Amino acid sequence: MIVVKIGGRVLKNNIQAIAEDIVELWHRGEDIVLVHGGGDMVSEYSIRLGVEPKFILSPEGIRSRFTSREELDVYLMVMAGKINKEIVAKIIGLGGKAVGLSGVDGGILIAERKKRILALDERGRKRVVEGGYTGRVIEVNTIIIKTLLNMRYIVVVAPIAVDNDGTPLNIDGDQAALKLAIALGAERIVLLTDVNGIIIDGNIVREIKASNIDSILSIVGPGINRKLLQAKEAIGSSVREVIIANGLRDRPITRALDEPGTVVRL
Amino acid sequence: MISKKCPICGRSVDLPDDVLPGEVVDHDCGVSLEVILNNGEILLKPLEISEDWGE
Question: Which residue has the higher pLDDT, A236 or A86?
Fold first, then answer.
């Protein structure tokens, strides 16, 4: 089984090659779970609908979307609707069998809402702010995904969870993919991004030990540091390798498995 | 500067004049303190937050 996370920019620029690769791998017998991003498109549609996107920066330099109630509506429409269904349609159009779900469906992803989070304000000072409609995954229910995989469907998952009060929540796509990989017992997960891997001092780092992640967080930059923090959490479960690779090329998943950019392992 | 007492160690905590509710200061005693406003008075309480990064 392969769990793949595709970032929004990769999806926007290389959906055809990704879908072709997925269908080819699926024809070869691979079970595939695909989690997608799409934050840029959510921002684009938010602006079109008159909801200004907001971002916050954590004291560790991690940039995150602040999801207001109004933006949550847009997030649901774009993530579970437009993006998810366009991927499914593309795969079906190429001869694959695919089902698109969000983490809300069947309670696949249960999350805890972050009611208060620590962020840097515009003066660079640490401040507690309302967490908005974002969450952290606390439970994964795999029965629907396993059933669909057993029926030879490719499963496409939008990064939306539901909390125990029945509120849908924006969750990080990397986190969703890693939690799913752990719950499904996957050994490898591929995070496709718009860079060739983790770059330090101008060079791609081919391998990172999970135990060394803390020491490099401050030098890899926001975005990538979050991926590393989550990779660290996943390594040591069933997941042996988290592969971070460039998704903007032909056969991006196959090539990520054969010639990964950066591999995080024990 | 505004001077307040740390609710944990009792020593003085200096806050900038333009401090705002919700602001967090790290005190010398090792505790992070959240600035709160109670009936117009600035108070400090230990920060209670389990996660500091979001989506």
Answer: A86
